Amino acid sequence: MIEKRQWKKAMILMACIGLGMGSKSVGAATYTTPILSGSPTFVGGDVVDINGANQFGIKLWSAGELMTTTGKLDFDFTTTLLPTSTIEAISLKNGGLNTLGTGSEFTVVTASTVTYPAAGLVLGKQGSNMTSASGSNLTLTMNGQGGQYGILGQGHLNLGANSKVDITSVVSSAVGINLGGGNVNASDLMVNVNGKTSATGMYMTQTNTTLTGQNNSVTAKSGGNSVSGLWIDGGASGVSNFNVERMDINVEAASLGDTQGIFAYMKDNFINLGSGSTITTKNAMGVNLSATAADPTPVNSTFTADKLTIATTGAGAYGIISYYGWTASLTDSTITTNGINAHGLLLAGGATNNITNSV
Questions:
Q1: What is residue 70's DSSP assignment?
Q2: Average model confidence (pLDDT) for the chain?
Q3: 164 DSSP β-pair partners
Q4: What is the Cα–Cα distance from 28 to 30, expressed in whole angstroms?
Q5: DSSP secondary structure letter of residue 35
Q6: Considering Cα of 105, then 120, then 259, then 348, what sign does the dihedral take?
Q7: Residue 88 contacts residue 56 (beta carbons within 8 Å)
Q8: What 3-state class would DSSP assign to 45?
Q9: Which of 242, 264, 277, 282 lies closest to 323, judged by CA?
């Protein structure tokens, strides 16, 4: 069987021959060694194909260094390295505005012997300046043994329209997007994660997220009992805002545990699921609005949705559970649960639910 990397090369070659251009299109280039400094500029048709014992594919950590992409970039990174720290296929910590192109495809594979965590795209600070990355219609695919993180770090991320993040860990955890500060903007974003032990679609801490469009979706599946479609955390002193026009969240776990469609924790979380969103779970709660009596007060966190549909299956799979200080407001919504002790709504410690025209 031809490997995916070889198949892509074959398709590019045949297309170029058909156009009478030889082995690659005009202006296109192929990079086969890691790019560890400078300001690389990629044009449509360029290929980055890095295979070997490498921790980084692209590493730009100095002020003034930028990744610039116009058109579609084909990025393939396969590593056999046994590192002492996280593998970072693309690592941008330059504090500037980097561009990822339109229609670009990023494929990251860690060999079967590599059990250390790996990340597809890492954003970080340069001094006090957050790094930005933008693109549209992007596809990020990861597959490996250790913990797999699609997008990791802190920074400003604009994924444009119709981007996809697809993450698989054969023996460990899988996380689609994990940011601890900054902003995320996208339209019709699709995130799929499948982890052997745990899975989280989007893990957002002290981050502002805005998703527009009618076709945003997060699917998280695991053979373990730690699964969340969304994990939203304001932290002890920060704020997280998560606003979506509409979203479908699907979560499936082997058994009930730390499992939910949405988990939101601590103070100053503001979540709005827009109108017409759905949350479907197996062996998981629908929405877990969490806090404890020891957390900073007031919790001052809200969850709002219109025409929300929640459907859970499994013993103890509540529709919505709200704790200390949370306020959940639903309009024209439906909650359906199927399982022993799977309550539709459960309040604890002074939480408030405002329910209008809902069942």
A1: -
A2: 88
A3: 139, 190
A4: 7
A5: B
A6: negative
A7: yes
A8: coil
A9: 264
> Coil, helix or strand for 253?
coil
- What pLDDT, in 10s, does the model give residues 250-260? 999 999 999 99
What pLDDT does residue 19 have? 32
Res 113: pLDDT: 79
For 16, the 3-state DSSP assignment is helix
Global pTM reads: 0.90
Amino acid identity, position 48: V
Largest CA distance in the chain: 71
The residues pairing with 203 across neighbouring beta strands, listed in sequence order, are 178, 231
Q: Which residues contact 20 (CB under 8 A, 6 or more apart)?
A: none
Instruction: Name the token pair of 240.
Output: 């997280």
d(CA 260, CA 226): 9
Q: How many CB atoms lie within 10 A of CB 181?
A: 19
Single-letter amino acid code for the residue at 6: Q
The token pair that represents 14 in the structure block: 């045949």
For the record, the structure tokens of 225 come out as 């009992």
**Whether the Cβ atoms of residue 287 and residue 311 lie closer than 8 Å to each other:** no
How far apart CA 213 and CA 161 sit, in angstroms, is: 9
User: What is the phi/psi pair of residue 12, to 5°?
Assistant: -60, -45
d(CA 22, CA 41): 22
Three-state secondary structure readout of 73-92:
CEEEEEECCCCCCCEEEEEE
Residue corresponding to tokens 């559970």: 321
Instruction: Note if the bond before 298 is cis, omega within 30 degrees.
Output: yes
Distance of CA 311 to the CA centre of its chain: 23
**Strands 226-233, 30-31: pairing kind:** unpaired
How many of the other CB atoms lie within 10 Å of CB of 24? Answer: 17
Can you read off the two tokens belonging to residue 12? 């590019």
> Helix, strand or coil for residue 4?
helix
